[in-house]
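agent> fetching stored inputs for the calcium ion docking request
agent> found them:
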Amino acid sequence: MAAAAFDLQGHRGTRGLAPENTLAAFRTAVALGVTTLETDLAITKDDVVVISHDPMLNPDLVRGPDGKWIVASVPIHSLTLAELKRYDIGRLNPAAKYAQQFPEQKPVDGERFPTVAELFAAAGPNVRFNIEIKTDPTKPDLTVDPNRFAQLAVDAIRLGKAGGRSTIQSFDWRGLIEARRLAPEIATSCLSIESNGMDTVGRTSGRPSPWLAGLDLANHGGSVPRLAKAAGCAVWSPFWRNVTAENIKEAQALGLKALPWTVNNPAEMTRLIDMGVDGLITDYPDRALPVLAAKGLEIR
Ligand code: G3P
Ligand code: CA
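agent> prediction call returned; pasting tokens
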């Protein structure tokens, strides 16, 4: 009997092993055999679609042409591609708390913010992409608006001839709905999180969350999978702590794939696999491989 298929996604490439969202991290993930590269987008001043988790330059990981980690941050949208390419993102600032989270990350000095075109070229033809539109309805001035962002992302994916092997994901479902309208050939993935630190669902707020494109949880029985289905998503991608066996089953009964993020502990990976997830997003694909092998799951 053929082994069941599983979508193993390398988060920001392989953030646990190589500098996040760099070509080095993507190459590491591909070499490990991931199905999918998870990554994040920003738009430069001259409208180039580049890879960055943060809409602002992040002092924890960005060094200026003087070789020092930056102190003052600026939005990527205020820089041209040529200006952005002057920064080095190949090493975490050892003085930053953030660096302590990733002790296995090997620096690769000289890595630059990649463009999406460079990502596609480096990744080769056999890997998939899960590409995040990073807009925030509570901080509209930080980026281009979600509709424009969706248009630029769709154009970049089509230019890379990667539509059939890409998913566009976002916490801000406005961009996802626009992406569906513009590009029915590209699947979308509805991200959600309900936690003390961040909550895009707003279950107890008494009004629709600004992250959900006007969709109202109250009209969908309080079910985030039903909401994701209504938003036209093919995938529901919840924060891993929000996953239950019930909500995974519900999502799959609606025809959605269920793909939690960001799972780094092998015991948690095992628990989620036992709940029936279709894949998972991890900073450490190397840790997931033995777990999947033990479960008889084939990565594809
Ligand atoms: O794919 C979902 C995950 O990447 C969302 O979290 O903050 O790492 O983009 P973040
Ligand atoms: Ca992301």
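agent> quick read of the result: The mean pLDDT is 97.
agent> awaiting further instructions
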